């Protein structure tokens, strides 16, 4: 296959601030520290990355695409992300085994339960 997944693009009011938040949350490396297009990756030479780009409009509705993460310890990871500035989000999920959080600009993501739980 000739297609390589390069990155996920995230619209942001403040790309650098949101990109730095995600870099801390994921433990990733900043590869482009630009105020308009801020990029992070798992390592400088690893793909895919997250590219945060400035847009003029605010987020208005639930994301049509979101990221899911599976930690070793769901409760500890949720607590850590909340400590970094994430918040709980209600997208109509009801009682589930995963936890829906939102980043500082309101982008939803899920923290799944561990495989051992």
UniProtKB/TrEMBL annotation:
Residues 7-112 form the Glyoxalase-like domain. InterPro entries: Glyas_Bleomycin-R_OHBP_Dase (IPR029068), Glyoxalase_6 (IPR041581). PANTHER family: CONSERVED PROTEIN, HYPOTHETICAL FUSION PROTEIN. This is Glyoxalase.
């Amino acid at each position: 296959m000739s297609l390589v997944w390069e990155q996920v693009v995230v619209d942001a009011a403040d790309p650098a601030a949101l990109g730095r938040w995600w870099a801390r949350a994921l433990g990733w490396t900043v590869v482009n520290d630009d105020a308009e297009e801020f990029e992070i990756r798992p390592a400088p030479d690893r793909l895919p990355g997250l590219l945060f780009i400035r847009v003029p409009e605010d987020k208005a509705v639930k994301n049509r695409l979101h990221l899911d993460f599976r930690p070793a310890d769901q409760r500890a990871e949720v607590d850590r992300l909340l400590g970094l500035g994430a918040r709980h989000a209600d997208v109509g999920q009801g009682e589930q085994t995963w936890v829906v959080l939102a980043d500082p600009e309101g982008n939803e993501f899920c923290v799944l339960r561990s495989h051992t739980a």
